[in-house]
Design brief:
Length: 466
């Protein structure tokens, strides 16, 4: 540890404005014979890589595919989706049949090789997933699909696909309005089954609950062959091609044959969840003591261990004015044949004891126990500059005799941010406010300085000297 004096005047103002009820140290006044010393110091932090076996992911987005990275190994994404039925749904008057039915997967983007051929399989669920919002485990990416479908039974459909549909003209595919999609025919038997259930009792289609319980429990869509791409699905749709009669304009007689597509969508309001699987190659990276890693989705995160005992012994009665930390990123080494993985755009630094309930409870960073940092391309790092409230809070808990075994643990987790634009009333300028934080579910990674190379937690503090 290294300590040096700083100019008093420059820090005094900061000291006075940073004091609050939770900051240990300086009281409400300083006696005339006391002097305020402003100082700086730093402490070593140890870091290591941890496996994130599963992450909480309650969203309508799903993922599908398999990709093999030279460094991180195999990664597979499969998903389960229930299908929503609009309330009080009815087929068009004079409907005669459902001629065909297909499952449509829409996606605006993907990762990997557009030409790689993969094979998907679609199975119908045989068990209703009862999602009442209380069982958080349903939305973790380690769910077991075998609980909900017959893995030894006959599939509903199987189909080869590529991320780019080369049967569509290039000009169409590259248009900004075009949305990539894969259509999987589910067969005439499924079409007849759906229409029969409707005619048996129209209440089977009165809402999502009735449809899921009485007609179609949902689908499990998974990759069974090939590798090379991951699709980022924006919509999952059950499309029914119906045949019905309508009036002729010339005679008013109902005898004109017409066809119409009717779409039932998967949505966030009903159950959709993706299962992510990584190969054992991640174990080698966890054991690497020369650095630490971040890997999404549901891959690796970095754990930080603070020297709380040493810090508390030396600064429990001081006022912490600023505590800063930088997570430095190594430049990526290009590997032969690999697609370049993106760098996570934002990192959540949070207490380890809060890392699960933060996402389950849809919390926002509070700059006390959780902090955000965006990747700084200029410094090639993620920087945190307001950790003094966190350290002060930990000191207060330690003083009260906390038994939390993770009291000295923080974790760095890649996240995606939902932002809302609004006008700052004081400046009249448009600003972005974070209104949602979720796990980063894209394919990304970062190699960070750490492991045997200690990180520095820098402190600026003031203390009263007699």
């Amino acid at each position: 540890m290294k300590t040096k004096y700083l100019p008093l005047v420059a820090l005094l103002v900061g000291c006075l404005y940073s004091c609050d009820d939770e900051t240990p140290g300086i009281g409400n006044f300083v006696q005339e014979n006391e002097k305020i010393a402003a100082l700086a110091t730093s402490f070593d932090i140890t870091t290591h890589t941890q496996k994130m076996d599963s992450v909480y992911s309650r969203m309508a987005t799903a993922y599908l595919g398999k990709y093999t990275d030279p460094l991180y190994g195999d990664f597979t994404a499969d998903f389960i989706a229930q299908i929503n039925c609009p309330e009080n749904f009815q087929f068009p008057a004079y409907t005669q049949s459902i001629e065909d039915v297909e499952l449509q997967l829409f996606y605006k983007s993907y990762f990997g090789d557009s030409t790689s051929v993969l094979r998907m399989r679609v199975d119908t669920l045989n068990t209703v997933i009862k999602d009442y919002g209380t069982d958080k485990s349903l939305y973790y990416t380690s769910f077991q699909p075998e609980k909900y479908y017959n893995s030894t039974g006959t599939s509903m459909a199987e189909q080869n696909y590529t991320a780019e549909d080369f049967s569509v003209p290039a000009g169409t595919r590259k248009a900004t309005t075009y949305i990539h999609h894969i259509s999987i025919p589910l067969g005439k038997n499924m079409a007849d089954y759906l229409y029969t259930k409707y005619n048996q009792d129209k209440k089977n289609f009165k809402d999502a609950n009735a449809f899921i319980n009485n007609v179609l429990k949902g689908f499990y869509v998974h990759t069974t062959g090939g590798q090379g791409s991951i699709l980022y699905l924006s919509s999952v749709v059950l499309n029914m091609k119906t045949k019905y009669l309508e009036k002729r304009k010339s005679t008013g007689v109902v005898d004109s044959v017409a066809y119409r597509d009717i779409k039932f969508w998967a949505s966030k309001e009903i159950f959709t969840s993706t299962k992510f699987s990584h190969s054992s190659k991640l174990k080698t990276l966890i054991e690497d003591t020369n650095c630490t890693y971040l890997k999404t989705p549901a891959g690796l995160y970095t754990e930080l261990t603070l020297p709380i005992e040493e810090m508390y012994a030396k600064h429990s009665t001081d006022t912490l004015n600023a505590v800063t930390l930088s997570l430095q990123r190594y430049n990526e080494v290009e590997l032969s044949g690999a697609f370049k993985l993106a760098t996570p755009g934002s990192i959540l630094l949070i207490r380890k004891s809060d890392m699960y309930k933060f996402f389950e409870e849809n919390r926002l960073p509070d700059s006390e126990t959780s902090f955000l940092s965006s990747f700084n391309a200029t410094t090639n790092s993620y920087n945190f500059s307001q950790l003094n409230r966190l350290i002060s809070k930990i000191f207060a808990e330690k003083k009260k005799g906390s038994t939390d075994e993770d009291l000295n643990k923080l974790v760095a987790i890649p996240v995606n941010l939902e932002v809302k634009k609004e006008v700052d009333q004081s400046t009249r300028k448009e600003v972005e406010r974070v209104v949602g934080v979720s796990h980063n579910m894209d394919i990304s990674s970062a190699k960070l300085v750490g492991g045997k190379d200690k990180l520095k937690l820098s402190l600026i503090y003031t203390k009263v000297k007699k």
